[in-house]
Amino acid sequence: MLRREAHAAIEDPLNEVFVSAVTPWEIEIKRASRGLRAPADLASEFRRAGFTPLPVTWEHGLAAGALPPLHRDPFDRMLVAQARLEGLTIVTRDERVAAYDVPVLTA
């Protein structure tokens, strides 16, 4: 369940919502290893919601690798790198992400 502010920001038609390629990747890994429940066709769900896909580029990879080791999760490090390079805000509950110089909206 998202906090009211995060939900409102995502639902606001004036905001473009990006979903990194690492998000469905991490969801599928967690579905397979921990039994996470998620829609069977994530891509269709993301498209239906009007989300914009954010691919991982070489620049994103280089930036993620150059981040200081404040967070050990490679998925979150990539999200931080993408947000910094693309000027985006990350929606997360992970307080460690906020340790980086990146805008965060608490999920």
Q: State the fourth-level CATH superfamily.
A: 5'-nuclease
The CATH topology turns out to be Rossmann fold
The tally of domains stands at 1
> Which structural class should the secondary elements be placed in?
mainly alpha
CATH class placement: Alpha Beta
- Main sheet makeup: 2 strands, parallel
Tally of contiguous helical segments: 5
Helix content: 40-55%
Number of strands: 4
Radius of gyration: 14 Å
Uncertain spans: none
First and last CA, distance: 8 Å
User: How much of the polypeptide forms β-strand, as a percent range?
Assistant: 5-15%
- Globally, the shape reads globular
> What series of H and E elements makes up the topology?
HEHHEHHEE
Mean pLDDT: 95
User: Widest sheet: strand order?
Assistant: 1-2
Give the second-level CATH assignment, the architecture. 3-Layer(aba) Sandwich
Describe what this molecule looks like in 3D.
The chain is mainly alpha-helical and 107 residues long. The chain has a single domain (4-106), classed as Rossmann fold (3-Layer(aba) Sandwich). The protein contains 5 helices and 4 strands; from the N terminus they run αβααβααββ. The protein has helices at 4-11, 22-34, 42-48, 58-66, 74-86, and strands spanning 18-20, 52-54, 90-92, 104-106. A two-stranded parallel ribbon has the order 1-2. Helix 4 (58-66) crosses helix 5. The longest helix has 13 residues, at 22-34.
